[in-house]
Design brief:
3 domains, 18 helices, Immunoglobulin-like, 26 strands, binds calcium ion
Length: about 625
């Protein structure tokens, strides 16, 4: 009799499941006790979930509010977690007419505050940017994953997936260490289940899941731990501005204004000026901020508080889960400024050492500085954004290498650009780079001129800020970004059966080794040099095609002198003009060659070269 009753109960509950609640997701799927912010908003997604009552009971947890929104397939639960709440699990029950329709076991964990987690990335570091699909295939079993939209692997096409993954990066951490890299930045690793060109990673379809073609969440966490164990750091690339059209919140939107909607498809104008221009048209500004990046990437409405919580909590979740050291914020100028300022403060409150830099592909120092925190040019809104990707310095270095010296041209462009650093609160938090996945490769941009290549790398690695190298630049990979897939080719040796293995010296050509060794020498020197990693910068007005700057410690105990000869003829540099920084020096050591210079009155510089000297 009792057994029959149980069976009946089971049948009834199966029926009610079929009719009503199918719990698809609860996000964030777990959380931590001891967070700075006691508030947590859970997004619950499931068919007709809003027709249920929500019950939960756990000491320290208050269910403050159950928010119903336009779409009954969503509930947003506002929780408050008391400071003394113990870690543990509790059931969130979804009830109808007193019966349990669905349940979710929610876990609150203890925060992992071990040393070496969330350390921050600073000017002491050298960042290596790579695209995980194109770097190395460490696990062939995940190349094609059943159930995902893109069903083919095709290494012959730049538009298809090539099979690279997180394990491939783990396998080559020693290579990066040898190069002198201290920090790995991968383009986004989270799921991009899109039908076409899913490899680039900027069209998220699940913000809480590593793309199964790259690995699992557990592998990502293990990757960060293994990177840390090698004394290296991790940057995660995140996107606030948009998601992919395969995202569940696009296919089944919580409410109409989850996204920025337009009567007809409207693309952003990609212009930063309307955001800061005191003469800007309101329409231009709205199109910049609310227009969609491309048709496959819907624009999130960051004025919607549910969107705000969803994004902010997602980023906090990843950092606490994996112990990430820094974040790179994609398409920063396209986001809502007030939300981004709130976001930065919330992240910094949870992780005081976390580094953050925003992608700002704009055209002037003023435009870049506008987006950074604590400065004088952004008219009252403190963005709390410490740094940006310094594309303007990159352009100025190119002009120094390729241009002809004039009052504002050639190397004077670089000089004048650095002279505008007063616009930043702290320019040393900017990321300095010569190329990345969205632009032509550095070696091609200097017309494969090896001297210019070395000078560019010397400037990059002795400049103020956080230097970044794009994968393959160290082995002279080349191409123009038209289309961008051409600068995203495979790192040779990353795949079993590749003709050459560029990860080892014997697989590289003589010239590739010369490039690798040049960077490795400077990068490894930089790690131990207080003058280069944290010192001040003093530059002198360029003369006669020669540009001279110094990096030096506060106490003047360490000084590095950089001399750039931008002309194609040998020069002799008279150094009397640099007495401010040189008067105590009697000799110098060439960092690259180890050669000693005992007479510093006149320094000989061969055509189109640069010298990095440690003054003694
Ligand atoms: Ca693979």
């Amino acid at each position: 009799m009792k057994r029959l009753f149980l069976l009946l109960l089971l049948i009834t509950s199966i029926n009610s499941f079929a009719q009503i609640a199918k719990l698809e997701r609860v996000e964030p799927m777990s959380w931590w006790v001891g967070m700075h912010n006691p508030k947590l908003q859970l997004l619950v997604h499931g068919n007709q979930i809003a027709t249920n009552e929500v019950q939960l009971s756990y000491p320290g947890i208050t269910l403050v509010k159950v928010n119903k929104v336009e779409n009954p397939n969503y509930l947003f639960l506002d929780l408050e977690i008391a400071a003394d709440t113990k870690p543990g699990k509790f059931a969130i029950n979804f009830m109808q007419k007193g019966k349990k329709n669905a349940t979710y076991s929610y876990e609150l964990q203890t925060r992992d505050q071990a040393a070496g987690r969330v350390q921050g990335v600073t000017s002491k570091d050298l960042v290596y940017l790579l695209m995980p699909d194109r770097f190395s295939n460490g696990d062939a079993s995940n190349d094609v994953v059943k159930g995902l939209q893109e069903t083919k692997l095709n290494r012959d096409s730049m538009y298809f997936r090539h099979g690279g993954d997180i394990q491939g990066v783990i396998n080559h951490l020693d290579y990066l260490k040898e190069l002198g890299v201290t920090t790995v930045w991968m383009t986004p690793e989270i799921e991009n289940d899109m039908a076409n060109a899913s490899y680039h990673g900027y069209a998220a379809t699940d913000n809480y899941k590593i793309d199964p073609r790259y690995g699992t969440n557990a592998l990502y966490k293990s990757y960060v731990a293994q990177v840390h164990a090698k004394g290296l750091k991790v940057i995660k690339d995140i996107v606030h501005n948009h998601i992919g059209t395969g995202h569940y919140t696009f296919k089944d939107m919580p409410m109409k204004d989850w996204l920025n909607q337009w009567p007809v498809y409207t693309q952003t104008n990609y212009r930063d000026q309307p955001v800061m221009d005191i003469h800007a048209s309101a329409g231009d500004r709205k199109q910049m901020l609310d227009g969609w990046f491309v048709p496959s990437m819907p624009d999130l409405n960051q004025r919607n508080p549910y969107v705000q919580n969803y994004l902010t909590q997602n980023h906090i979740w990843w950092i606490e889960y994996a112990g990430i050291d820094g974040l790179r914020l994609d398409t920063y100028p396209y986001n809502d400024a007030a939300y981004m300022a709130d976001w930065a403060q919330k992240l910094q409150a949870e992780f005081p050492y976390l580094s953050i830099f925003g992608e700002t592909l704009v055209n002037s120092v003023a435009s870049q500085a506008y987006f950074t925190g604590g400065n004088v040019v952004n008219r009252g809104l403190d963005t709390h954004l410490p740094g940006i990707t310094d594309a303007v310095i990159k352009d100025a270095i190119y002009e120094a290498l390729n241009g002809k010296m004039g009052w504002t041209d050639g190397v004077n462009r670089l000089y004048a650009t650095l002279a505008q650093d007063f616009l930043y609160k702290d320019a040393t938090k900017n990321l300095v780079f010569m190329d990345n996945h969205d632009m032509s490769r550095f070696y091609s941009m200097v017309n494969e001129d090896f001297n210019k290549y070395k000078t560019g790398m010397a400037i990059l690695l002795t400049m103020r800020g956080i230097p970044q190298i794009y994968y393959g630049t160290e082995i002279l990979m080349k191409n123009y970004s038209n289309p961008d897939g051409l600068v995203r080719s495979d790192f040779s040796g990353g795949w079993k059966g590749d003709k050459a293995n560029k990860f080892i010296a014997s697989g590289r050509t003589e010239k590739e080794n010369a490039a690798f060794n040049y960077i490795s020498k400077l990068a490894n020197y930089r790690k131990t040099s207080a003058a280069l990693s944290t010192g001040k910068l003093m530059q002198f007005i360029p003369q006669d095609g020669l540009y001279v700057y110094f990096r030096y410690t506060d106490d003047n105990s360490k000084t590095i002198m950089v001399i750039v000869n931008t002309e194609d003829k040998a020069k002799s540099l008279k150094t009397a003009r640099f007495a401010e920084r040189m008067e105590k020096a009697s000799s110098a050591t060439n960092i690259i060659t180890g050669e000693k210079l005992n007479n510093l009155t006149n320094i000989a510089i061969p055509p189109s070269t640069s010298l990095v000297l440690e003054l003694n």
